[in-house]
Design goal:
The chain has 14 helices and 19 strands. By secondary structure, it is of the alpha/beta class. Strand 14 (526-530) and strand 15 form a beta hairpin.
Length: 574
């Protein structure tokens, strides 16, 4: 089938599909694509420690069948592009059957592909193609909650209170004289009560949308079933797992219910809903399952916890890594960046893991946009103005984003790149309100637009009904100027953000060794450090230029002055 997606890849010089076993896939923009093989080139069990991982939001990557939704075959078609970019692994946000109450994070079946996105055969082809290009596959698992359309929850609603079917979830009697009030005052992350009442009078817990009922992880059947899910995907060749809401599985449901403070968790693991010590028993069991494979399957926790607690999830006896979101939440400030890097490297060394670095993902405003807004801007409020107030300095935001990304890629540890950041994409802030899909919009009483602006389908070509994403308009509208940031538009431009990412990732692969750095004496506005064999990274966070460091320039995130390192610029020197 010839589609807009395959045409788009042909336009930019990328084969639409890669076939396992071929010896060459040509070049892309002057970059020779790596020779594929039937499996990743090296079965190194520690590949994840220094990996560059590219996050794909499947519904927004590429649409192969003209239904407006990205799909698995579209991702497969893009593997040569991602291999030429230089990434080590692809992390797939959920692609499972889902009613899409929360963008796929409401899973109706953990061991299948959403039929709108493809089939298990399509997924197997994706894994084969990725491995043929020496790219690994990481999949999301969502263990805190299921969809309300999951077979387990439908059975729970059909069963009586106290039944084994209901015991897989958190069903409780309500409070008040007639049980008509929620069992506790716990609040959903999407707004409103975390409890919903069913017709027979019981209430069920959902820390997110009502369509996402929480599982009861004290139930042995829940634990054993998820272990089977890990094996199901590992047996299909998956190389690792990203664990959604890893800090939410263990809960203290004893009466009287205690108040939760999920936005500022205590350091002793005493919150009733999040980051309880019992959760580590679960992940120790998962590690046993993951170690059944050769090489062991990797895993990374999404755990929104205080930093000293986060490293517990990253222990080698548990998941092995945990997301460090500190820089994602930080201002573009040299002191803040240096302190957070230093702290996280120290904690990672203590836990035995490598650190992780991330600036954007599917849940936050893109960092090119954040860095172009005045310091302290409430991005939720900014989105409610359709991105008009305060005004966005797009050029400054992109310069800073390029500098910060290049700094991260010089650090020891693994770096996570969100789809489209290599194109310098900004947040799609002006999505019409009647087209918003994030449950935050509804649950907040239409006061928070939510995360749709970073989930808009990415542009492949300069024109067309969806800028090469597919044959028809996509499920979320793209900005009218997206074509200027497309792969086609940036291809061949040596100064484009896409070219910068390719060059930086290639240099990183050549230079990256060891997991340590040495801080350098620099002007106050500059963060500088040396890596294992003396190559150095300097980032000027200020507005004014500073003297250029001595040495041979390897790469820079932007134009360099005559003997000067301009503001909002990173340079690597040897």
């Amino acid at each position: 089938m010839v589609t807009a997606t395959t045409n788009a890849f042909a336009v930019i010089g990328i084969p639409a599909r890669s076939v396992s076993g071929v010896s060459s896939v040509g070049t892309l923009g002057g970059v020779t694509l790596r020779t594929p093989s039937s499996t990743p080139d090296t079965p190194d069990p520690n590949w994840w420690r220094q990996a560059v991982v590219y996050q794909v939001y499947p519904r927004s990557f590429a649409d192969s069948n003209a239904d407006g939704l990205g799909d698995v075959e579209g991702i497969t078609s893009g593997v040569p592009y991602l291999a030429s970019l230089g990434v080590d692994a692809i992390w797939l946000s959920p692609f499972f059957p889902s009613p899409l109450a929360d963008g796929g994070y409401d899973v109706a079946d953990y061991r299948d592909v959403d039929p709108r996105l493809g089939t298990l055969d399509d997924f197997d082809q994706l894994v084969r193609t990725a491995h043929a290009h020496d790219v690994r596959i990481i999949v999301d698992v969502v263990p805190n909650h299921t969809s309300d359309q999951h077979a387990w929850f439908r059975a729970a609603l059909a069963a009586a209170p106290g039944s084994p079917e209901r015991a897989r979830y958190v069903f409780r009697q309500g409070s008040g004289p007639d049980g008509s009030l929620p069992p506790s005052d716990w609040v959903s992350n999407f707004g409103g009560s975390a409890w919903t009442r069913v017709p027979d009078g019981e209430w069920y817990l959902h820390l997110f949308a009502p369509e996402q009922p929480d599982l009861d992880w004290s139930n042995p059947s829940v634990r054993s079933d998820f272990e089977d899910t890990l094996r199901f995907w590992s047996d299909r060749g998956v190389d690792g797992f990203r664990v959604d809401v890893a800090h939410g599985l263990a809960k203290d449901l004893s009466v009287p219910y205690r108040a939760s403070n999920g936005h500022q968790l205590p350091l002793d693991g005493s919150d009733p809903l999040y980051d309880r010590d019992e959760v580590h028993e679960i992940f120790a069991t998962w590690r046993t399952v993951l170690d059944e494979y050769d090489p062991p399957r990797a895993a990374i926790a999404e755990a929104w916890t205080p930093a000293p607690r986060r490293v517990l999830y990253a222990r080698p006896t548990e998941l092995g890594q945990a997301f460090n979101f500190d820089l994602l939440e930080a201002a573009f400030d040299p002191g803040v960046f240096r302190d957070l890097v230093e702290q996280n490297l120290a904690m990672s060394a203590h836990s035995g893991a490598s650190s992780t670095w991330v600036l954007s993902n599917h849940d936050v405003v893109r960092h090119a946009t954040r860095y172009g807004l005045p310091l302290g801007t409430d991005t939720d409020a900014w989105l409610m103005t359709d991105g008009t107030t305060p005004p966005l300095d797009r050029a400054l935001g992109l310069r800073r984003a390029r500098a910060a990304s290049m700094l991260l890629l010089a650090l020891p540890g693994s770096t996570y790149v969100y789809q489209g950041e290599e194109l310098g994409l900004h947040e799609a802030a002006a999505i019409p309100r009647d087209q918003l899909q994030d449950p935050k919009w509804l649950r907040s009483g239409h006061t928070v637009k939510g995360r749709d602006g970073c989930r808009v389908p990415i542009p492949w070509t300069s024109s067309g009904p969806s800028f090469g994403f597919g044959d028809v308009a996509p499920f979320l509208p793209q900005p009218v100027d997206f074509g200027a940031s497309s792969v086609e538009a940036l291809e061949g431009d040596p100064d484009s953000t896409l070219s910068m990412y390719r060059q930086v990732l290639a240099a990183r692969r050549r230079l990256q060794q060891g997991e340590s750095l040495t801080w350098l004496d620099t002007p106050a506005a500059v963060v500088g450090f040396a890596r294992h064999d003396g190559w150095r990274s300097y980032t000027n966070f200020g507005d004014a230029p500073v003297p250029m460091p001595s040495g041979t320039v390897l790469l820079a995130s932007g134009p360099l002055g005559d003997g000067e390192l301009p503001g909002a610029t990173t340079v690597w020197v040897a």
